[in-house]
Amino acid sequence: MLIPHPLLGLRDAQEFTYLGDASLLNRPDGMAEGAAEAFYDYVYLRDNPAGVHRELWFHEQGDRSWLVVTRNTVTHEILGAELARDVALAAKGGAQ
Amino acid sequence: MTDLAPITALGGSLARVQSFGALAIAENADLALASLALRRGAAQPVPMGLSLPGPGLWHAGNGIAAFWTGPGQWMIEAPGRATEDFAAVVKQAAPECSVTEQTDAFTAFEIASTAGAGPILALMAKLVNIDAAAFGPGSATRTGLEHMSVFVIRRAEDRLAVIGMRSAAGSIWHALETAAARLQGD
Fold first, then answer.
1. Of residues A10, A14, A83, nearest to B144 (C-beta)
2. Cross-chain Cβ contact B142/A63 below 8 Å
3. CATH number of A2-91
């Protein structure tokens, strides 16, 4: 399996380690109302889709960047990869 | 005072060199290394007049060289300066950046071919899962080699460098030696 690293091009999936659902980037606010419930959901409850899934991969034997890889869990087709940093910054409105 | 004798990463008093047909592998005990990382929002420096390369690249100039190791991070190489405090020199040249001494953390092996690019490409094909044909002179990347993390640099058509963990110097040498010897046997 090859992962299209946004900076380095196609790289062997063996160079990466897998973390899980990219929704882990959206950590709930611990000080907000209902934080306990939100953290219960964040830590324990995962969607397990058969089909397109966004996942966090770490380029461990590479440039040590975190990627958000879009993958079809049924066909193992890789549909794209972005730097997780860019995804997280975009979600925060591009602020540093 | 105790009489201390310096040894190389492979434990010899002299750097190890061995030939395998067209390929020669040499331990490079004199290479000074320092990592350089940008701090948040900082501009990219030009340390000692060397422009820092982009992702996947290596660039030499002014007696030193640099390769990209990650977003906003580079390794600076200085041939023949392993006994100096090279990190201090880099820090002076790029005071806004985070600079860390790496000379004693890594060990470098220089592979030279006397028959052009062919043997280098054949060796890469045996050792690393990188597209060797697309890995032309001036390319550098980190990858896995027999479960060890190494930097691979294509210094020229007929020259390749492998830089890995100093504590694994013997294992890296074994991997390179075995692959080169088998190529020779082909």
1. A14
2. yes
3. 3.30.2270.10
Q: How many domains does chain B have?
A: 2
Q: Does B113 touch chain A (CB under 8 A)?
A: no
- Side-chain half-sphere exposure of B53, counting CA atoms within 13 A: 23
For B85-130, the pLDDT digits (tens) are 999 999 999 999 999 999 999 999 999 999 999 999 999 999 999 9
Residue B165's domain comprises: 15-29+106-186
pLDDT by residue (tens digit) across B12-35? 999 999 999 999 999 999 999 999
Strand partners, B140: B153
Chain B: give the shortest CA distance to residue A91, in Å: 19
* Residues A6-36 pLDDT 10s: 999 999 999 999 999 999 999 999 999 999 9
User: In angstroms, what CA-CA distances link B91 with B35, B54, B74, B86, B96?
Assistant: 10, 20, 13, 9, 8
User: Do A62 and B141 count as a contact with CB atoms less than 8 A apart?
Assistant: yes
Show which of B53, B73, B102 is a domain's final residue.
Answer: B102
